[in-house]
Amino acid sequence: MNDTQDQQGEADHQFEPAICFIGECSEIIWAMTPAERLRKQFSSHGINQEISVSDARTRNGPVIFLQADAILDQPIIEVLARRLNLALKDEAGNIVAITTNGQSGDAVKAVMQGGELPSDLQLLVRSPDDLDASYWEKLRKKETPYALSVSHDDKDAIEWRMFMGTYKGATDFITKHIWPRPAFYTCRAIAPTFITPNIVTSLSAIMVVLAFWWFWKGMYIPGLFAAWAMTFLDTVDGKLARTTLTSSKWGDIFDHGIDLIHPPFWYISWGVGLKQAGFDWSDNFLWQILAVIFIGYVVQRIIEGISIKWLGIEIHIWRPIDTFFRQITARRNPNLALMTLSVLIGRPDWGLIAVAAWTVICLILHAIQLIQGFAAKPPDAPLVSWMRKQEAG
């Protein structure tokens, strides 16, 4: 490489964003300091260079100046990574981040230490709700992203806010309304330990096998304990990964693979266990019921795949009614609630029939959704989620 190429590489490097922290903060939030968290978040966007204020004085390129006690939601990280001349306020009105030319570092430091914002910096001052970043497609939700400053007295509230921010907007009612509080305390307890999200997922896989075995033997009460433990751990692993920034491609495949595959096997083992539990179904009737559940489950998944591929949207986030329907549609947790109720009244056979009936009803409703989606889809454009439309409005 010649001198000209070296100089060109250095010049290009100057224009890559770097991060610069103002101040210090030793508070621990989800097993790391705010600065450690921000480093990880920006690293996920390819921004790995960190400089000091003195280094910034000679930098002819963009720098993201950050308060060391700032906690920023991921959509805000994406905005800061791509926008220059922006000053971000937290929810209390304090400036916690500024993206500008590095040579303005001294003026920025003065501002972030409580000084007035000089007009010559020509910064666009925005709060989180001004950023058009409230629709988070990956989590299928619309929610104003948080920008917070940490203090010792509000750590609990901040961790709760961050935890709830990891939830998907379209999910079942058990995950949405029952598991959050116990999952929060579980995640907070294990976040500083050696227990990783993949370890939690492995434990949930063990619960899958135990539930299958006990259902097969007609031992429905211990089987239900294992099944509900699995659904709880299935909530914990994802929330732990997002709050501690330890998500991985393998973990995502591992978790979603288990979620996709195991439900039909639970229904089969539940049906096989009926005879041992004293319910004398004919084999023909049993396999007809199981066929309805299995085929309905597979076809519903196919419908969801068709929606993503040809309508360009996950069907459950198209309209408000679709998002509501996701809470109760015939997926694992709502079906497990029906099966639990049947055991409580002493009729586990009714539980399987209820799951079959609800699967058929939901399959019909999914088919109607799909037909309506194709009818409403504009030419050469995907359907748009009602949550994105609200943000645009």
How far the N terminus sits from the C terminus, by CA atoms, comes to: 52 Å
Remind me, CATH topology of the largest domain? Four Helix Bundle (Hemerythrin (Met), subunit A)
Number of domains: 2
CATH superfamily of the largest domain, called what? CDP-alcohol phosphotransferase transmembrane (TM) domain
Total strands: 9
Largest sheet, in brief, is: 5 strands, mixed
**Radius of gyration over C-alpha positions, nearest whole angstrom:** 26 Å
Overall structural class, as computed from helix and strand content, comes to: alpha/beta
Element pattern in H and E: HEHHEEHEEHEEEEHHHHHHHHHHH
**Roughly how much helix do the residues carry, as a percent range?**
55-70%
CATH class group of the largest domain: Mainly Alpha
Characterization of the model:
There is one protein chain. Helices cover 58% and strands 9% of the residues. With 393 residues, the protein is α/β, with parallel strands linked by helices. It folds into 2 domains: 3-130, no CATH class; 166-392, Four Helix Bundle (Hemerythrin (Met), subunit A) (Up-down Bundle).
What is this entry, summarized?
With 393 residues, the protein is an alpha/beta fold. Helices cover 58% and strands 9% of the residues. The chain has helices spanning 3-14, 34-43, 53-56, 74-82, 105-112, 155-164, 173-178, 180-190, 197-216, 220-243, 249-276, 283-311, 320-328, 332-344, 348-376, 386-392, and strands at 18-22, 62-67, 70-72, 86-89, 95-101, 124-126, 135-136, 141-142, 147-149.
